[in-house]
Specification:
By secondary structure, this protein is of the alpha+beta class. It has a single domain (15-150), classed as minor pseudopilin epsh fold. The protein is built from one helix and eight strands, in the order αββββββββ. It has one helix spanning 15-64; strands at residues 72-77, 80-85, 98-101, 107-110, 113-116, 127-132, 138-143, 149-150. Strands 3-2-1-5 form a four-stranded antiparallel sheet, with helices on one face. Strands 4-6-7-8 form a four-stranded antiparallel sheet, covered by helices on one side. β7 and β8 form a beta hairpin. The longest helix has 50 residues, at 15-64. It starts with 14 loop residues before the first helix and ends with a strand. 22% of the residues are buried. It comes from Candidatus Kerfeldbacteria bacterium CG08_land_8_20_14_0_20_43_14. The chain crosses the membrane at residues 12-36. Keywords: Membrane, Transmembrane, Transmembrane helix. InterPro entries: N_methyl_site, Pilin-like.
Length: 151
């Protein structure tokens, strides 16, 4: 009786086939990581821009509606945006603060505080904010003297 150890009926993979498969998977994963990081950074930027624009618009609407008979504004802090009630951030009522988290990979520079007047919704200061991501991609938000937010 002869064994068929090395016959044509063997099933399985050789060591060479396994190593080649692992190498191909490693190359594909290595090429995919930078692409994923770029997409993640772009997504973080989009979220930060959208969050900031929405916060400005909400503060403006609350001021126009004279919510709680006061003005509303937005303050930038590292890592988050604060929607606040009051004439300025220092004199605000912290019970009404709304904190919006922004991705830590985004840096914001420019006008740190924007407060909107009651009834009119016109900002007390117009300004420009620049958002910069880790890979130096930038977006600019501008709020003009009429209160329009452009980005």
């Amino acid at each position: 009786m002869k064994g068929k150890i090395f016959g044509k009926n063997n099933k399985g993979f050789t060591l060479l086939e396994v190593l080649l498969s692992v190498a191909v998977i490693g190359i594909l994963a290595g090429a995919g990581v930078p692409i994923y990081q770029t997409l993640q950074n772009r997504n973080d930027m989009d979220i930060a821009v959208s969050s900031f624009a929405q916060s400005l618009r909400r503060a403006q609407l609350l001021s126009q509606a004279v919510a709680n008979d006061t003005t509303w504004g937005v303050r930038i802090r590292p890592g988050f945006i604060i929607l606040f009630q009051g004439q300025n951030f220092m004199g605000r009522d912290p019970n009404f603060d709304e904190e919006i988290s922004i991705p830590p990979s985004i840096r914001i520079s420019g006008t740190p505080e924007i407060v909107f007047n009651k009834f009119t919704g016109i900002p007390q200061t117009a300004g420009t904010l620049t958002l910069t991501s880790v890979n130096n991609e930038t977006e600019t938000l501008t709020i003009n003297t009429k209160g329009t937010v452009n980005y």
